[in-house]
Give the backbone structure.
Amino acid sequence: MNLTDAADIDKLIAIDLDGTLITDEDVISDDNIAAIHRAGRHGAAVIIVTGRPYVSADAVASRVGLPPVPLVSFNGAMIRWSRGGKQLTNTCLAADVAEEIVDQCLRQGLHLQYYLDDQMYVSQDNEQVRRYCQRNGMQSIEEPDLRRFAGQQPLKLLVIDHATRIGPLLDDARQRWDDRIYVTRSMPEYLEFLSPQASKGRALDWLLEFFDLPRERSLAIGDAMNDLPLLQHAGVPVAMPHADEDLKRIAHFIPASIENGVAEAIDWFLGRIIGVRS
């Protein structure tokens, strides 16, 4: 199916990557891939919705064998056609609040990553950076003083720290910047700062308008705090079996398997919507 013709689409399936489609061991199961292709044959636009940078989302889309589709990256801050295609939306942090966040993080001695377009800047190359780059299939650029970017509008800022410290840092950020930012946790050790106009939920709203679909024809699958807006905005929310409790409370379905949870959710959704069974 060629999704450049949005009229062919009568349902939308939004899938998170880490902890949902992709396991901690970087595995995408054959069952998940088969279910994604099955959904496509039955008129679904299957969309990756991730906190990862675009280059990483695009690589996964190719790995899964998706047709040309819009990809949601940076937790909703960017929507862009796959295969290096046209950018559709771009929602950046305001320059003044970005400067404040950079200054506060550096004064606290936190490891901070700064994203301009699809480039990632770090103050030093360390094990955290190397693990992140390996996971996301991208390169970093060293910039000893991230304050040099004063006046720029980044897509997002990311702190990596021990999981036990991220909770207090999240609470502090919400108190300090309130509604000037959207701050979320995408993995236990990741704290992400974005524009308050950016989230996976807002991205889903944009996609539904783009494909001219009613909300009840949308399935969203996720597992972490940053997926909560996505599930809240979907007609049919699905939480992975290990998901945060906030997600499980609103889920219409919770698959039994982690490795094949996406396949379970897709087949359940297709059965419910059009009576298709795997």
Observations:
- The two ends are 19 Å apart (CA to CA).
